Amino acid sequence: MMPDTRLVRRLRRSGILVGLGLLVAAATLFWPHPTSFLVFLGLGGLLVGAGVLLYLFAIAAGPADAAPGPASTDG
Amino acid sequence: MPFLDEALVAVVLAAVALIALIVLRPSLTAARGGRILAFLALLVLPVLAMAMGLSVHVEQSKSTEFCLSCHVMEPYGKSLQVDDAAWLPAQHFQNNRIPRDRACFTCHTDYTMFGDVNAKLRGLRHLYVNYIGGVPEKVALYEPYNNRECLHCHAGARSFEESELHRDMRAELGANETSCLECHDMTHGVSELKEQTLWTPAKEARP
Questions:
Q1: Are residues B98 and B126 in the same domain?
Q2: Would the pTM count as exceeding 0.90?
Q3: Contact call for A40 and B54, based on CB within 8 A
Q4: What is the pLDDT of residue B200?
Q5: Is B108 touching A (CB cutoff 8 A)?
Q6: B191 and B101 within one domain
Q7: Could you tell me if B30 lies within 8 Å of chain A, comparing CB atoms?
Q8: Dihedrals φ, ψ of B131, to 5°?
Q9: Range of the domain at B27
Q10: Count of structural domains within chain B
Q11: What are the residue ranges spanned by the domains of chain A?
Q12: Which of B12, B24, B150, B175 lies deepest, with the highest CB count within 10 Å?
């Protein structure tokens, strides 16, 4: 078991953002319409972009910033 | 592009599965292998999936169905079905002179090095106009139709090259000094569609 550090929390949030973004982006591919392209870029792209940036921030700040957060369990 | 579609589904599924693993068991990232997994799941695969998704969307945006999904384009789609050979788009569409599933794009892209990119940039502008800017009362081309787009297919074709009229003005047509549309002037004619009978294709018989 790993302590619920900021790094872990950030990785989880990043994963949720990227996962949601990918699901939104995948859903738009079944609808050939200009609106679906907007949703792909505007929502899917935004979520994936935010998730990826959060991941990069997490690994850049991770080791020095790995103070324990509020008590909780992971997994 | 069926291959790209299948590859995209595989990449998205792999990314989502790995992300679920990282989210549910973050302790994996304590080991080096887990960190590589996280790198793949949270950076490499999502970026790859979005790039492939963008490519699929760009391909989809070339389809006739995509263009005609905007309300303002409906009459232009109807003009492809006019039962009159004088109607230039209808004649091309109904006789398979252009691919039916890419009818709009085939004639309205620029056949230049960055023609497809320019066409897609114009498409973005259309999105803006459709949702935010307001659709103009009269839909018109940005610039006069260039013969280059016609000659992309017709140049070298026997029916074109051996026609006496074409032969007499071949140089002018090639230099875009005389527009093809000066003679072939019945294009979409959306204001006259009401008086026209429409062609209904029989069920497609393919060998």
A1: yes
A2: no
A3: yes
A4: 86
A5: no
A6: yes
A7: yes
A8: -100, -30
A9: 2-60
A10: 2
A11: 6-65
A12: B12
